[in-house]
Design goal:
This protein has six helices and 21 strands. The protein is of the alpha+beta class. About 25% of the residues lie in helices and about 35% in strands. α4 runs antiparallel to α5 (about 150-175). It folds into three domains: about 10-60 and about 310-385, Beta Barrel (conserved putative lor/sdh protein from methanococcus maripaludis s2 fold); about 65-75 and about 225-305, Efflux pump adaptor protein, beta barrel domain (Elongation Factor Tu (Ef-tu), domain 3, Beta Barrel); about 80-225, RNA polymerase II/Efflux pump adaptor protein, barrel-sandwich hybrid domain (OB fold (Dihydrolipoamide Acetyltransferase, E2P), Beta Barrel). It has helices at about 10-20, 20-30, 45-50, 115-145, 150-175, 370-385; strands at about 40, 55, 60-75, 80-85, 90-95, 100, 105-110, 195, 200-205, 215, 220-225, 230-235, 250-255, 260-270, 280-285, 300-315, 320, 325-330, 335-345, 350-355, 365-370.
Length: about 375
């Protein structure tokens, strides 16, 4: 609770206004006879001006309730890549640096490998063998039509050609994995080196090889992350799961930031609890993707769950005394009666209020200076209880 102080002159004036000095003061108490004892404050015009007291009316506003949750920023599998090789090779050149942005298909490194050279040789040999077997099959078919050879011989020729075609197709597929077009491969353009390319666009996070090093197969050589795919995984506990669904807005902030710094939108809710707790993951896509947001960051968030239209006042209009909440309603000019209220949703500087006694919607209510009135009222309550 705020304590506001004015010069002693104003305090004395307030006491004289509430005390038994003169008929004007008595008249002010007469018109507010319906107010409970100790709930009314009367000010002079000078006091109103000195404290900057302002009145307003309740407003019908759309307010949203929220659910607090925490979680972290994560990347989907298709935005995070580990790059490795199928078989070992000698690193001839590393073409990128950590932190560098790369496009999909951009060269990361060049490696030299005898196994790669052997793969090309195997393809050319299988191609030549396939042509020979195809010619042999044609001869066997002609001989079989003339009833010169046995059916078994023809079947064997057909089987040999099928095996050769399968071997050629498999070798061609392996070459395509290295970016080699099998149709353009000849004995004259065989090469011992191949390039390693980025499978996704993003930023190079880690490089584990250096020039001249022998790269091991199936061991990550480069890590690439695409932070444009960042989203939030939030933990929502069992009792709150029913309140969350796709399309709801989320406001969040990471360590050291206010919760409302960034926004996101819920796009999916898991249908099973996490293995270590009675909570489900709620996935939200970022509406903005600031450079400072990185995968793995922990965040605090508010999920905007329900929207309602309610009578509301600025936050400063509602004051508290212990566990009770009050507003000050102007019954006569510069005379204010403290009225108990229940509070509801708060959002963007406004709070839902439900007066516990009848208050007209167009009544003038103190929206600035309410803490001063409460301070004076509680300070003077002992003086008025005589």
């Amino acid at each position: 609770m705020k304590n506001l102080f004015l010069p002693l002159l104003f305090t004395a004036a307030l006491l004289s206004a509430c005390g038994g000095q003169g008929g004007a003061s008595q008249g002010e108490h007469d018109h507010a006879a319906d107010a409970a004892p100790g709930t009314e404050v009367a000010l002079t015009p000078d006091q109103v001006k000195a404290i900057g007291l302002i009145t307003g009316t309740m407003e019908k506003r759309g307010l949203t309730t929220s659910l607090r949750a925490n979680g972290r920023l994560v990347l989907p599998p298709d935005k995070n890549a580990e790059v490795s090789v199928f078989f070992g090779g000698l690193v001839r050149n590393v073409a990128v640096r950590e932190g560098q942005h790369v496009d999909k298909g951009q060269t990361l490194a060049e490696l030299e490998s005898l196994e790669f050279l052997q793969l090309q040789q195997d393809f050319l040999e299988s191609t030549a063998n396939g042509k020979a077997l195809a010619a042999d099959l044609k001869r066997q078919q002609d001989l079989h039509e003339d009833r010169i050879n046995a059916t078994k011989t023809l079947e064997r020729a057909q089987a040999d050609l099928s095996v050769a075609k399968a071997r050629q197709a498999a070798t061609a597929a392996k070459l395509r994995l290295f970016g080699v077009d099998p149709a353009s491969l000849t004995a004259e353009n065989l090469r011992s080196s191949f390039v390693l390319r980025a499978p996704i666009a993003g930023n190079v996070q880690h490089i584990t090889i250096t020039t001249g090093q022998s790269a091991e197969p199936n061991k990550p050589l480069f890590s690439i992350v695409d932070n444009s795919g960042l989203h939030i995984d939030l933990n929502v506990f069992e009792q709150d799961v029913a309140r969350v669904h796709a399309g709801q807005k989320v406001v969040f902030g990471h360590a050291g930031e206010p919760v409302g710094r960034h926004t996101a939108t819920v796009f999916a809710v898991n249908k099973a609890f996490e293995s270590d707790q009675q909570a489900v993951l709620v996935h939200a896509k970022l509406d903005d993707n600031g450079e400072e947001l990185l995968a793995g960051m922990y965040v605090d968030a508010l999920i905007m769950t329900d929207s309602t239209s309610a009578w509301s006042l600025p936050d400063d209009a509602v004051v508290s005394n212990g566990d009770e909440h009050y507003i000050f309603v102007e019954h006569e000019p510069n005379t204010f009666v403290m009225t108990a209220v229940r509070t509801g949703t708060s959002e963007l500087g406004y709070t839902e209020v439900m007066p516990l006694s009848a208050v007209a919607h167009d009544a003038r209510i103190v929206v600035k200076g309410a803490y001063y009135l409460l301070s004076e009222l509680t300070k003077g309550s002992g003086e008025h209880s005589h």
